[in-house]
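[INFO] parsing input record for hexokinase
[DEBUG] input buffer:
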Amino acid sequence: QIQRALRSLCIPLERLHIMKGHMMEDMCKGLSRQTHAQAKVRMLPTYICSTPNGTEKGNFLVVELCQNQVRTVLVTLFGDGNMSPQMVYKIFDLPEGIMQGEGEALFDFIAQCVSQFLAETTPSDTSISEERLPLGFVFPFTCRQTQLDKAELLSWSKGFSCSGVVGKDVVQMLQSAINKQETGGNGGGGNWLSSWRGWKSSQLAPGQPSHVEVVALMNDTVGTMMTCCTEGRPCEIAMVADKGSNCCFMAEAYLVETAEETSGRMCVNTEWGCFGDDGTLNDVFTPYDESVDEESSNPGEKRFEKLVGTLYLGEIVRHALIALTAEKAVFTGTDITVLKEKGVFTIQHVLDIINNEDGTTEVKRVLEVLGLQPSERDCGRVQQICRAVVGRAATLHAVGLAAILSYMCQTRDMETLMVNVGVDGELYKGYSRFEEILQSVSRLLSPECLATLLPSRDGSGRGAAMVTAVALRLAAQRRAVDEVLGPLRLTHADLEKVQALMRQEMEKGLGKHTNATASVRMLPTYVSHTPDGTERGDFLALDLGGTNFRVLVVRVTEGGISMASEIYVIPAAIMQGTGEGLFDHIIDCIVDFQTKQNLMTQTLPLGFTFSFPCQQVGLDKALLLTWTKGFTASGCVGQDVVQLLREAAQRKQHSGLQVVALLNDTVGTMMSCGYDDPKCEIGLIVGTGTNACYMEEMKNVGTVEGDQGRMCVNMEWGAFGDNGCLDHIFTHFDRVVDETTINPGKQRFEKLISGMYLGEIVRQILLVMTEKQLLFQGRASSKLQTRNIFQTKFLSTIELNGLALRQIRTILNELELDASFEDSVLLREVCQTVSLRAAQLCAAGLAAVVEKMRENRGLDRLSVSVGVDGTLYKLHPCFSLNLQKTLKELAPNCDVSFHLSEDGSGKGAALVAAVACRTA
Ligand code: ADP
Ligand code: MG
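[DEBUG] output buffer:
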């Protein structure tokens, strides 16, 4: 029988693996918004989003409500890595009956304890003086926490049942009780703060704390975790193996769906005592466990805790002994009536029995003190049972720990995890083999993780002070961060103003007489129609001015558009040679292409995407204003580009060339999307630069003769603000970035939005934040001082939701920056701020466009589409969503949909040619 009993208490390894899996599933359930309510492992958010970094300093008061006691602690931190905090304690016994009395009386009592403690205590560092003394409240009951200082009690436990507290915010209750004390409203108290630091007068001197403020509430498990954090050694898991059992750990905040926080990490209180309440542990329960559960005050609940909590271990042993006696396996022929009484066999008895490795003298003593008459054999068997019960408890703790370790490792997307685990509690301290079992079993179950166990010093009091200190440090940091980022955050009113200014500049640009002074040029394109889908035929297209020079043939059929293309290199000698040389080279490329494609015998209409600034005077007539992007070919500026191409064709005796249109890439983008969606009357580019075009009424285009129909206008909006009209939104960072470009004062709008600049803006912010000691511990690497080192594509990576912060660190490590976890979180916020502003400003520009189109057409609602191109728009994870959301807010009467353009330059050029042929 004894062997059978021992076997039933021993859980096989495969079963432990399965149990770990269940625990992980339950953890996910507890974190998910949909399943949280039914989850047994509650996974409560604590709103503690950071662990101490050692810079915390000041005086902190902690009040801990424990079983039968209130503990008050004054902790002084010196910002020295928290190595040697000063602590003064006082313990107050709870008066008889208060645990079951009125809630208000309980909180009044706690406030009195605070008052009395402060009256008697002088802080060890009187040089630190604050107006208010922050208080951390350790409240070891299940709460629904919605902020660090807001927690509604869900249910009492541990013998407490005070009325009028469940459902209330316990922080508020404690604060009110303290306020009552401070104003002397509760009799006796008087102005107790006046005696703080030995001041006997009733006047408060400047620098004295005039107010105790409850800034944080936490569970004792969290306190333990924080206690174990010292400099350079964050502790991210804490386990308390005591009367009950619980564990908390730092989870990725975005996974804690029940809290609003999405960035960084948050400490989650697992409340794992209820694991198994849904039956997942049924097959490991022994008849002894069932008896313990039936006799408890809450049968069927906290099933895991009842296997591992020290409140229950003695009971399990007691029931095992009763059963074994009945089976005549122990205590045969002796009186065991004493074992019938609940609670006689305590954890202390159990620990005394098992910790004694040599012989059974101690076992005999313990059992005799209990009133039993054990034989030598009984002593041995009782010891075996006790070892089995406690060993199982330690093993089950290891299962829980392994589940958390693997969960952390997986969700942080790491191959291996090294982490410190703070441990505290009666079982951990009292059972000599606990640590060894915890270590070895968790290692077996989660071999990818390496947990270092740290004993918690000074219990949860110091930890609670740390939580409070960290909360204050973060609040101060938040203020400083907001000060830096504030100017980059635009309000709805700011954006409306930008929209209005854009509208104003558009009108100026369109006006015949005002055009010259407008920052938005509003260039006519001579494209009067978007595709209607009836275009057919084969076309040639040229794309010059992007990264590559390309020649394409585009086939527009009923079934859709197909293309073939060839990329040609333009040697630097030709780019910087003569105009004739350049255009001759282009013709050579066309001939080569036509030959390869077997097109030499046909004369195909040709569309030319030419991405350089041009003054267009006809669809096939455009004067080059200036070369950019490394081109300097002579004799071209001021000339008609189409004519230059035609002349080259003549020189090369290529008669089969029919150039019908020259266009800008925004126009190509609009046209290529317009083929599939006739409502597409806007083109937008957000790539290296930014620009837009749209269909304007001819009667509004003052720079072109004629009032009939519409014409596409190339806004050249990148230059918006070059006349100073946006000066009020430029920040210090924007000015620095502008000054270091090759065209200072030019393209000011573009410099707030496009890919060429966003990374650089972020870099400037990082430099300032580092200088203000908000990042990288105040140390900027020399790499970070390098211009353009922070690429815009980094923003895309960093802002990916759910990206493991490790990857952010990888980017930062490449920049030779040693980033803490918090640095990574802040960096992400910086990137989000910059890219959000870019998207919002782009939306403000677009809002001006769509509203103007709506007014032009006299519509209450406009439904229109935008064709978009550009890598920033296409690859950034939030840019397009932010743009669309802001546009809805700024232009509520317009329904705007967006289409990504595919190969706008090639396809668009062909379509411009096609439409020209169709309308001709
Ligand atoms: P262009 O505008 O010259 O035709 P693109 O549309 O490809 O070229 O845009 C290039 C710009 O896109 C570059 O300035 C670069 O910084 C930016 N970029 C490249 N990759 C990404 C990315 N993953 N996320 C955001 N921006 C990017
Ligand atoms: Mg492009």
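[INFO] The mean pLDDT is 89.
[INFO] shutting down worker
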